[in-house]
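Because showing beats explaining, we think one record worth quoting, sequence and backbone structure tokens together, and here it is:
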Amino acid sequence: LQRVADRANGNAFMHGIPFIWCSNNLTVAFVTQAILYREITGDQTYREIETAMRDWLFGVNPWGKCMIVGLPAHGDYPRDPHSALTDQHQIQVTGGIIDGPVYCNIFKSLKGVHLRNVDKYAAYQNSTVVYHDDYADYSTNEPTMDGTASMTFFLGYLASKANAK
């Protein structure tokens, strides 16, 4: 937890996870670890970064994009994920967390990755990190089973806390 917090130092979004493939999986895993640490120890040291990383997944990021397909229902979420169900049959994979942003050098080095549509987030891309809501970008926009499983725990945790009030 401390290493991620140290990496986040100076980042406007308090995001300290490396932008490697499946960065969102690592982000939700970090949130889970921070919750467990806080619940077990009662120590609030990482509460601020836990909250910032949660918010990142729900859209407080450079793209203003919630990283979960279908959430919120009328908000900005991945509409063109790298999913055959969505692409071929127009079936939305609601609840799936997508891979997340990657370093530009990863995006540029992958075979077969390209953009099928105009990048609607071009104004928010930079020379370090990219995210594309585009079917052809499987590096940033593919729903992941393991990340979605982790997100299920996290959403269940939030629901249990809301219902306890």
